[in-house]
């Protein structure tokens, strides 16, 4: 039987593990996963089974761990990852799900460690 509507899964302790909406058997709409503590782990959207729009991942403390963007199931545009202390870890861009352009890597104090350049997924420096 094809899944339609909201599907919720729970941890053995009764807390919500995930909540995802389906349409005609494929993810469609918001999908959220949770840590066993109840804090949000990941939030993303789907359109007809493909990742679409912003995706956010969080540390168990609630601080942002990752922010990226999808278009028709592929990463597109800026992706930012964070250290648990809230400092930016990396900032880079994707084009059609491949690294493209400058990626900046930071240490956990917010200082630039390295700059790397990519073109269509290949490192060029």
UniProtKB/TrEMBL annotation:
UniProt name for this protein: MORN repeat variant
Organism: Propionigenium maris DSM 9537
The organism's place on the tree of life at top rank: Bacteria
């Amino acid at each position: 039987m094809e899944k339609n509507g909201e599907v919720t899964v729970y941890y053995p302790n009764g807390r919500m593990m995930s909540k995802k909406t389906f349409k005609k058997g494929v993810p469609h709409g918001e999908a959220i996963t949770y840590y066993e503590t109840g804090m949000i782990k990941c939030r993303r959207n789907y359109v007809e089974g493909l990742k679409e729009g912003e995706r956010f991942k969080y540390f168990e403390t609630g601080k942002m761990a990752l922010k990226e963007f999808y278009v028709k199931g592929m990463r597109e545009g800026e992706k930012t990852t964070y250290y648990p202390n809230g400092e930016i870890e990396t900032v880079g861009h994707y084009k059609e799900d491949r690294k493209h352009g400058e990626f900046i890597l930071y240490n956990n104090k917010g200082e630039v460690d390295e700059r790397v350049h990519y073109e269509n997924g290949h490192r060029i420096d």
